[in-house]
Amino acid sequence: MLIDLSVQVSAESRKQAAGAEPMAAFGHLGTHFDVMNKEFPTDWFERPGLALDVSSIRDRDIAPEDVDLKAIGAGMFIAFYSGFIDEVPYGTTDYFTAHPQLSPELIEALLDRKVSIIGIDFAGVRRGAEHTPTDQACADRGMFVVENLCNLKTLLAGRPRRTFTAHTYPVHFTGMSGLPCRVAAEI
Q1: 104-112 and 131-140 helices cross at what angle (nearest 10)?
Q2: For the chain, how long is the longest CA-to-CA vector?
Q3: Is the pLDDT confidence value at 58 over 60?
Q4: I need a surface site. Which of 38, 138, 168, 179 has the fewest CB within 10 A?
Q5: Measured distance between the N- and C-terminal CA atoms of the chain, rounded to whole angstroms
Q6: What is the pLDDT of residues 14-48, one digit of tens each?
Q7: Could you give all domains of the chain from N- to C-terminal order, each with its CATH number?
Q8: Given phi > 0 = left and psi -120 to 50 = alpha, else beta, which region is 26?
Q9: Alpha helices, DSSP H only, in 34-92?
C-alpha cells in the first residue's frame, strides 16, 4: 500500500504561500527538498524510512531524548509527525513562522547517524534566520531536508513510530536551492 505524503497545492494556497513566505515560490512550493544547490542522488529515490510521532511536544524544540536514536541508522529517511500541517493550513503566515523546530542537538545527532533525509510536516527544521543556514549545513554534510509532508498520522496509524519504504521523486532541476518533489510511503 502507498500513502501519498505530498501536500496538495491549490491555486489559492500557492498565492497565499507566495504572499506569506518569499521562498515559497517555484522550487520551495509545497512538498520540496531543500537541496541547497547539491545534486540529489538517484539511488536515494527509495530509502528505508522511519516515521516518529512527536505530536505531543509543544512549546519547546523536539530534542534527541524525544526519539529513540538507536532505531535510526545510516541512509534512512526519518519523518517527524508533529501534526502541525493538520492544525495550521499550508501557505498561511503562521504556517511559515510558528511551526515546531528540531533542536540543533537533534539535527546534529541525525547528521552523526548519517541519515539521508529528514522529513517534516512543517516549514523548516529551524525557523527564521536559522532556517537557511541549517539547511545548508545539512546539505553540506550529505543530509537533505524535505518540508511540508502530510498524511503522517495515517502512516503511523496510532503507533508512536513505524517503519516504511520512502519513495521520493524530486523534479530534475539543477542549481536550485529547493526541488519540488512527490513523496510516498510504502507499507
Answers
A1: 10
A2: 42
A3: yes
A4: 38
A5: 6
A6: 555 454 444 445 555 667 787 777 888 999 999 99
A7: 2-186 (3.50.30.50)
A8: left
A9: 84-87
